[in-house]
């Protein structure tokens, strides 16, 4: 194999007969689909898009990109790719931390897991080998205990990483997730549910930097350093991503980037200010400034911050560790008080108590559940309660009730918990009220209301993995102004704009670099890094074509699985119930945006035609 | 008039918000008053040529002034102003 960056080693693990075989990377696939997300989807397509996601035949693919574990800034990401039991679509969910790098240092580009073990197992990965081991003594444990069991509870201070499911994945919660290092989640799409169905508890990886890829000495290394240096410089100097630092008195120094200083949750006040913050299950699009600020990144930094850990090769350190010091959750130390769950469990549930949000996020990180979905399923339950649809009601802002029902979902310990554990869409349907389910293709919406930030409405509808903000992050344009400022209340032009974001992110997710790199760098920097790691020519235009190819590959998978344009929809609420606050009177003009979007994509009613598949070399 | 500040701007004005009595009727006028009163604020909001820095967001009643009339956007005594440095996130 001539391609740089790759280990050129993939393990196929069949849990049914407990066999492991090894192979190299298919070079043609690596050229076309880059790595991580793109390559993972190709493995899933080859495994069969009609596979029942709950069957042993479904594949769970852990796939690195060619950058993973290198010196490239923000290269600590790993893609979990599978057919989602929540949505029925292909899905990829990425985690940060150190597991991705250690998997690469242990000698692997990918682990492809199929079958179902007849008893609980875990995988141990070290020095280019995978062993299937008995997990009976850790089955039933939470993720925090599992991580501690293998001595991986101190982040980057060990050579061991544990990627684990918790009780939720074991108990069939359809939005169960994987986490590593206690708090870094591959959160969306039910990757943990697939593992639970396979009796797979965790993947333990041992690897040191000695195993990392480095360019050859001489000109190659010099060129790599130039490309990496330019990439790093832009990240360090961006007003968004510049690392933060503090003065002796604890105040932030000039030049500290807000993402670094306050974490992702610095968005809370900004999105609320424009009327794009879904409130009480999106019945409103704005909460009070006081309620938003009470759970914002600013408040968390000023009143609760204890540490600022980071991922492999990242100077931004957007992770914020906080400690709750008062009330029933006093003593709780947790990480990942991110914008998304702060919204889903905050304004969306009529809750402005940061301690409750911290507690439920930590439950999600221990039981292994998607913290976006759980906030939505609880808010849907609260609205059902308000409208008298359920016998055991839960009031808006009932923090103790939120904590209780989260445990009941993970453990399946009550009837209501079992119903909600199937996800927002299925639970609402079970009560005969799908109209209060804020979901697309069975997955709950993130923290940007499509009436106040219209590009995201189109993004949710056309996402290949169900409602998702990360497939095409139009708020970069609609809120911030990257690459240009567009009006969040204007629908015109959002179709072509979204396509650019979707294609660019598909490429960076396949390298696999952190999405936040896109706040500072773009296609030219990605191309230069690719050329100097992989060793193949890559222009700015090539980046966008490769991203388009990957996005179409996913769409093709979904088409073969039975999805078409009718599934590119939004909850009726966003289309007919006008917004409140600054976006008052606005709905999301989805049909108009979809028309522009399909035209830009060259799709016929959400379906990739044969000509487009040939044009993009997906078929020959 | 109450003007709310966020993130790295809060230390510059000493809190979450500033109350401005007898406020000017344009965003430009208000920012001039604020810049005189709070050291360091001007440099955080404006480039050397006097234009608002890229990615700084100034909202009047929830609308970014880039979609109204820029610095000449009109404000009334009961308007709400929110001023953000470059903020992004989203996971």
Characteristic terms for this protein:
heterodimer, A: 620 residues, alpha+beta, Aldehyde Ferredoxin Oxidoreductase,  A, domain 1, Aldehyde Ferredoxin Oxidoreductase Protein, subunit A, domain 2, Aldehyde Ferredoxin Oxidoreductase Protein, subunit A, domain 3, six-stranded mixed sheet, 17 strands, 39% helix, B: 91 residues, Ubiquitin-like (UB roll)
Strand and helix layout:
The complex is a heterodimer of chains A (620) and B (91).
Chain A: E1 10-14, E2 19-23, H1 27-33, H2 36-47, E3 60-63, E4 78-83, E5 90-95, H3 99-105, E6 110-114, E7 121-126, E8 129-134, H4 143-149, E9 160-164, H5 167-170, E10 178-180, E11 184-186, H6 191-197, E12 200-206, H7 219-237, H8 258-262, H9 267-273, H10 289-294, H11 297-304, E13 305-307, E14 321-323, E15 333-334, H12 339-344, H13 354-367, H14 371-386, H15 399-411, H16 415-420, H17 424-430, E16 439-440, E17 443-444, H18 454-462, H19 475-480, H20 494-511, H21 523-534, H22 540-560, H23 572-576, H24 590-601, H25 610-615
Parallel strand pairs in A: 1-6, 7-12
Antiparallel strand pairs in A: 1-2, 3-4, 3-6, 4-5, 7-8, 9-10, 9-12, 10-11, 13-14, 14-15, 16-17
Chain B: E1 2-5, H1 10-13, E2 17-19, H2 27-37, H3 41-45, E3 57-60, E4 63-64, E5 81-84
Parallel strand pairs in B: 1-5
Antiparallel strand pairs in B: 1-2, 3-4, 3-5
What does this structure look like?
The complex is a heterodimer of chains A (620) and B (91). Chain A is 39% helix and 12% strand. Chain A has 620 residues and is an alpha+beta fold. In chain A, strand 4 and strand 5 form a beta hairpin. With 91 residues, chain B is α+β, with helices and mostly antiparallel strands. Chain B has a single domain, classed as Beta-grasp domain (Ubiquitin-like (UB roll), Roll). Helix content of chain B is 22%, strand content 19%. Chain B has 3 helices and 5 strands, in the order βαβααβββ. The mean pLDDT of chain B is 93.
């Amino acid at each position: 194999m001539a391609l740089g960056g790759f280990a050129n080693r993939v393990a196929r693990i069949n849990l049914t007969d407990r066999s492991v075989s090894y192979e190299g990377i298919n070079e043609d696939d690596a050229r076309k689909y880059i790595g991580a997300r793109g390559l993972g989807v190709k493995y899933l397509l080859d495994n069969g898009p009609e596979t029942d996601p709950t069957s042993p035949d479904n594949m769970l693919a852990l796939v690195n990109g060619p950058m993973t574990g290198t010196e490239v800034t923000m290269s600590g990401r790993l893609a979990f790719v599978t057919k989602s039991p929540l949505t029925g679509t292909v899905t990829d969910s990425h985690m940060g931390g150190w597991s991705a790098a250690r998997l690469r240092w242990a000698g692997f580009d990918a682990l492809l897991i199929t079958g179902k073990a007849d008893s609980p197992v875990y995988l141990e990965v070290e020095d280019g080998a995978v062993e299937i081991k008995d997990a009976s003594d850790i089955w039933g444990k939470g993720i925090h205990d599992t991580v501690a069991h293998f001595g991986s509870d101190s982040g980057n201070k060990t050579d061991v990483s544990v990627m684990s499911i918790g009780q939720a994945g074991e108990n069939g919660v359809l939005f169960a997730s994987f986490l590593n290092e206690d708090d870094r989640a591959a959160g969306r799409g039910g990757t943990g549910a697939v593992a639970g169905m396979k009796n797979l508890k965790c993947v333990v990886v041992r690897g040191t930097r000695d195993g990392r890829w480095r360019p050859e000495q001489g000109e190659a290394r010099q060129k790599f350093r130039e490309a990496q240096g330019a990439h790093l410089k832009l990240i360090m100097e961006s007003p968004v991503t510049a690392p933060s630092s503090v003065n002796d008195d604890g105040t932030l120094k000039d030049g500290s980037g807000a993402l670094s200083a306050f974490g992702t949750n610095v968005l809370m006040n900004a999105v609320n200010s424009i009327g794009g913050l879904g409130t009480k299950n999106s019945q409103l699009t704005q909460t009070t400034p006081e309620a938003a600020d009470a759970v914002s990144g600013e408040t968390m930094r000023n009143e609760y911050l204890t540490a600022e850990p980071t991922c492999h090769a990242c100077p931004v350190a957007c992770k914020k560790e906080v400690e709750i010091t008062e009330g029933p959750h006093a003593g709780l130390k947790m990480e990942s008080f991110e914008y998304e769950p702060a919204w889903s469990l905050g304004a969306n549930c009529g809750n402005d108590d940061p301690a409750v949000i911290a507690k439920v996020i930590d439950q999600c990180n221990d039981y292994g559940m998607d913290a976006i979905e759980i906030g939505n399923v609880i808010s849907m339950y609260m609205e059902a309660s308000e409208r008298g649809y359920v016998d055991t009601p839960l009031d808006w802002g009932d923090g103790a009730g939120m904590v209780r029902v989260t445990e009941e979902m993970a453990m399946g310990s009550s009837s209501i918990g079992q119903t909600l554990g199937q996800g927002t869409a299925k639970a609402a349907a079970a009560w005969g009220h799908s109209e209060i389910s804020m979901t697309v293709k069975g997955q709950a919406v993130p923290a940007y209301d499509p009436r106040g930030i219209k590009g995201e409405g189109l993004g949710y509808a056309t996402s290949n993995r169900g409602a998702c903000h990360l497939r095409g992050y139009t708020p970069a344009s609609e809120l911030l102004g990257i690459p240009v400022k567009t009006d969040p209340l204007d629908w015109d032009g959002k179709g072509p704009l979204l396509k650019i974001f979707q294609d660019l992110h598909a490429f960076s997710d396949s390298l696999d670099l952190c999405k936040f790199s896109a706040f500072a760098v773009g296609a030219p920097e990605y191309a230069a890094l690719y050329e100097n790691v992989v060793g193949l020519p890559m222009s700015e235009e090539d980046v966008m074509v490769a991203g388009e190819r990957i996005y179409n590959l996913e769409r093709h998978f979904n088409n073969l699985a039975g999805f078409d344009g009718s599934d590119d929809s939004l909850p009726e609420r966003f289309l007919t119930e006008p917004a409140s606050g600054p976006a008052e009177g606005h709905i999301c003009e989805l049909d108009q945006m979809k028309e522009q979007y399909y035209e830009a994509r060259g799709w016929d009613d959400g379906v990739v035609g044969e000509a487009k598949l040939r044009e993009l070399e997906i078929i020959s | 008039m109450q003007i709310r500040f966020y993130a790295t701007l809060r230390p510059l004005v000493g809190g979450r918000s500033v109350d401005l009595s007898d406020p000017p009727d344009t965003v430009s006028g208000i920012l001039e008053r604020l810049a005189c009163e709070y050291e360091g604020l001007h440099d955080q909001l404006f480039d050397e040529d006097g234009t608002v820095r890229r990615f700084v967001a100034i909202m009047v009643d929830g609308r970014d002034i880039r979609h109204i009339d820029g610095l000449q956007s009109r404000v009334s005594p009961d308007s709400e102003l929110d001023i953000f440095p470059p903020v992004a996130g989203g996971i």
